[in-house]
Design a protein that fits this description.
It is a single chain. With 141 residues, this protein is mainly alpha-helical. Helix content is 52%, strand content 4%. It folds into two domains: 1-59, no CATH class; 60-116. Helix 2 links the parallel strand 1 (12-14) and strand 2 (46-48).
């Protein structure tokens, strides 16, 4: 839309509600907006955003920002959250393993109950009567 506005001869372009702050989702589009803004300004077109917008706020400056108090605080908070995330994921794996174990134990218990429960009086199959009795052979033959 911005490129079209530039080509149609707009004199002012404004952005409201377009921060493109989500790094993974808008990282490449944000650079495109910056390039088109540069192009628009070269043509004398005014480009603006509300004061609250961070669309034109510069990203981290390597070698400069890493020594600021704010950056150190952000880095420490990130490390804390990453540590807590690893702990939570490990705990979730432990709980999942315990749930799998209990599911197996319940299946085993069901099998035992279905197969063996309340069979205290069961003594096994009765002996079947012999149909063929062995015949003694006459002596001497």
């Amino acid at each position: 839309m911005m490129a079209r506005a530039i080509n149609l001869g707009a004199t002012t372009i404004g952005f409201w509600g377009v921060d493109m702050a989500a790094g993974e989702e808008y990282e490449m589009q944000r650079a495109g907006i910056h390039f088109l803004t540069y192009t628009a300004r070269q043509r004398g077109i005014e480009v603006g955003t509300p004061a609250e917008s961070d669309l034109f706020t510069p990203r981290f400056r390597y070698g400069v920002d890493e020594w600021t108090h704010g950056y150190r605080k952000l880095r420490a908070r990130r490390q804390e959250l990453e540590h807590r995330q690893r702990e939570a994921e490990a705990l979730a794996r432990q709980h999942a393993d315990a749930a799998h174990f209990l599911r197996g134990a319940l299946d085993d218990l069901k099998y035992m109950g279905d197969t063996w429960a309340d069979k205290a009086d069961h003594t096994g199959p009765m002996l079947a009567p012999r149909i063929h009795q062995p015949v003694d052979k006459p002596a001497g033959k």
